Amino acid sequence: MLYSFINSLDKLLKFKSAAAHCDIPCKIYDPSTAQIAALSVIRFIDIINELEQPLSVANTAQLARLVREKEIHASKVKEEVRVIWGDYFKQPQFDQFPDTHALVHSIMLTASKCKQHIDREHAEQLLALVNQFADSFWQTKGIATYQAKSPYPPSEHVVYPDLKSA
Amino acid sequence: MLYSFINSLDKLLKFKSAAAHCDIPCKIYDPSTAQIAALSVIRFIDIINELEQPLSVANTAQLARLVREKEIHASKVKEEVRVIWGDYFKQPQFDQFPDTHALVHSIMLTASKCKQHIDREHAEQLLALVNQFADSFWQTKGIATYQAKSPYPPSEHVVYPDLKSA
Amino acid sequence: MLYSFINSLDKLLKFKSAAAHCDIPCKIYDPSTAQIAALSVIRFIDIINELEQPLSVANTAQLARLVREKEIHASKVKEEVRVIWGDYFKQPQFDQFPDTHALVHSIMLTASKCKQHIDREHAEQLLALVNQFADSFWQTKGIATYQAKSPYPPSEHVVYPDLKSA
Amino acid sequence: MLYSFINSLDKLLKFKSAAAHCDIPCKIYDPSTAQIAALSVIRFIDIINELEQPLSVANTAQLARLVREKEIHASKVKEEVRVIWGDYFKQPQFDQFPDTHALVHSIMLTASKCKQHIDREHAEQLLALVNQFADSFWQTKGIATYQAKSPYPPSEHVVYPDLKSA
Amino acid sequence: MLYSFINSLDKLLKFKSAAAHCDIPCKIYDPSTAQIAALSVIRFIDIINELEQPLSVANTAQLARLVREKEIHASKVKEEVRVIWGDYFKQPQFDQFPDTHALVHSIMLTASKCKQHIDREHAEQLLALVNQFADSFWQTKGIATYQAKSPYPPSEHVVYPDLKSA
Amino acid sequence: MLYSFINSLDKLLKFKSAAAHCDIPCKIYDPSTAQIAALSVIRFIDIINELEQPLSVANTAQLARLVREKEIHASKVKEEVRVIWGDYFKQPQFDQFPDTHALVHSIMLTASKCKQHIDREHAEQLLALVNQFADSFWQTKGIATYQAKSPYPPSEHVVYPDLKSA
């Protein structure tokens, strides 16, 4: 098929990047919500793996709850990252972090794996990728970051903005 | 009417507080989501008040969007605070902060005011109350807090956990 | 940390209770939705406990459905009660029922137990507490109540407003 | 087009009605939720019509909130009625109330009108139709009904099941 | 009970059908969303039935996910069909397809069966009924249809509008 | 800050692309839902621009409804495209369409513009981009496409898969 009704994607994209900084209202973006959701995914997987086997009816019910929460929080990671990437990141940010498209896409795939499996490894990767994304985000805003253990289980390292020194 | 089928509310409540620490799975609670939502309410009100008057059709449409987001984020404040209060706070936390019930109820009323009005004052009060709640929360976990301006508009003071020194 | 940016919670709360009766639109509150949700939680637990064991794949699937509905309805209890408590109850209602904060908090904890477990006892307690809340609510409005069995399973006693005699 | 892959709709429908009473779990149906939503639609329209004109920015914001709530509650009427009709009503109930399909369809159309307009008349019709539906429902269960004014605004007549005499 | 406050349902219904064509905004209706959801229900059932038995914890978790998706998509079928039936179908369409009420009701019951069971047969019936509904819909708009296999699993026959020849 | 806890994003990404084809269940992807949502955005903007001015209260209410629907459908475009891009597109598809990341990001930005404005131009661009995405998608599956006018307003050109010839 001859696909003719868009003459040029480039033309459209050019329009977009030129218009970037003036027509979007300044919004509040904060990757912490995605990071908390990624921590939650690890946590739910930990609790799943602690369930006594063979599964009793009560524990099968508990598993169904944990799976549902895991689904919801893995989707939340996708959604929150998509919003920051799709609304905030524009040409200047991509110039600073050219791999952002690939990083975001990788977060989507890894979050899907976390939905499909109950292995901790995928969830740890998800958190690592989301931390990477958070680190990039804060750098584009000129805000230094530091790592610390989350003050609640699963006590994994999280990238935080260093607001105290700011 | 003689309300007889609950012999004693006290009996029920006693059961509850005795059972508190063992039958709830350790969960991830973080008031930052409520704080971001409260900041967002201030921000939407600021943008509403910057709309040029008299309202054009385009600006009436924009107002409808901003009101919708304000509704959603004020409800999110209520929801997030309700979860931490209703799931995490139990007798030991209430012993430490006996006014928590009143504080949480006040957050509910103030969030309602933020939905009903477009005055910045209510939204500033909401953030102050949610910060107060966050401060209590971190104290019950033995984590020091500090204040800093949010690294995005509306650049208001927010209570953060001091994880760097932890 | 010296928490200084709210000089006084009391000041805020005072403002709130003074402003209570004029700035809230008259709304429609009805605890029946919470009561139906609490009945549903009992019902789902009954059906869960009737599943033939060991669980076949079909029954494991059915269990997952029932757990999901139980989650949704227990959350609905929390949400509906939170709305009436957080929007409608103010100083005059608290004067009439000083234990309301504790009752509402107890509903939150008990609804959480209903999510975590498949024991009928927690769900019966939840209904009892929600009935207690409904009874208080109708009394604050000067409407008498009566008890009757719900006209559908699980046929438990429910507090209804006596509108016929009104 | 010759539509051949369903040989006979009748065959499918026959299967359906034969299978009706054994394979559906006994559920909790209660039209009160739809009735409360219909009352709410009337109420929101009343408040809309009380807004001072010409609309200030604050009142335009309030109107946007009221419209949103009206949308949500009119959709809730549709959803709640669809569930009872689509899950509970089967051949025996249709034998008793042969006009139920038409009544339910009429509720859908009238709820749409309530979304599209701000006239009280449509909302009153919606409540009347939902009351009619509730009355049929309770009759199919052999439960008498009575009318009373709702114990909150808009104080319209509502059909309630007579559980006291049951 | 003498149900008196609606003098006549006919009167209401008459009003409705007379008003049908002018007060509804022209909207976008497309049964394809319901058809995709029905295909998805078949697909989830296929994947459920491919799970290795006895179910491991990982597969019990996967089953919970599949059941949740099946619930969501079966509900989506109900919702999408209800919207087209309840918003678009009016007297002229019912004249053309007098069995539409029964067809739509049958879709509701069959979608419920798909939620309650994991048998492919119910899901195939659901797709057949939704295709029947789609076929009627396109005919009321004067658009021919054709059947083709869906270009993705479960590769079942779907009724499509013939837009190429239009 | 030295960001050390991810040694190498490349390592993670490599793992990902290697694992791509075996651990994702075959799913049902169909861009038609995004295309219908994009058409709806154009339609809502058309109806908004037909509202009589100056806006009466009834029309201000109608505008609030239209804006809400526009928000919901523009978000739906984002969500549906994100799912196909984030779940289905992997290395082989990116090899075939190397600009997909940029195209998807452009859809996000354009959908945001459609939310912020009431100009038809943005919505037409959105549809063009979503059509471009749909065309790529069908090509990756080896299915030819054709253009036809949507069989409902706004009667814009849409890319459809050519299933008849398949």
Considering the chains and any ligands shown, give keywords for the structure:
homohexamer; 166 residues; mainly alpha; Four Helix Bundle (Hemerythrin (Met), subunit A); two-stranded antiparallel sheet; 6 helices; disordered N terminus
Give me the number of helical elements of chain A. 6
CATH topology group of chain A? Four Helix Bundle (Hemerythrin (Met), subunit A)
> Percent range for helical residues of chain A?
55-70%
The global form of chain A is: elongated
Give start-end ranges of low-pLDDT stretches of chain A: 1-24
Q: Give the averaged pLDDT of chain A, no decimals.
A: 87
Description:
- The first copy, chain A, has helices spanning 9-18, 32-50, 57-88, 91-96, 100-116, 120-140; strands spanning 145-149, 157-161.
- Chain A has one domain (28-165): Up-down Bundle (Four Helix Bundle (Hemerythrin (Met), subunit A)).
- The first copy, chain A, starts with 8 loop residues before the first helix and ends in a 5-residue tail after the last strand.
- Chain A is 63% helix and 6% strand.
- Chain A is mainly alpha-helical and 166 residues long.
- The first copy, chain A, has six helices and two strands.
- The model of chain A is unreliable at 1-24 (pLDDT under 50).
- Chains in contact: A-B, A-C, A-E, A-F, B-C, B-D, B-F, C-D, C-E, D-E, D-F, E-F.
- At the A-F interface, helix 1, helix 3, helix 5, helix 6 and strand 1 of A face helix 1, helix 3, helix 5, helix 6 and strand 1 of F.
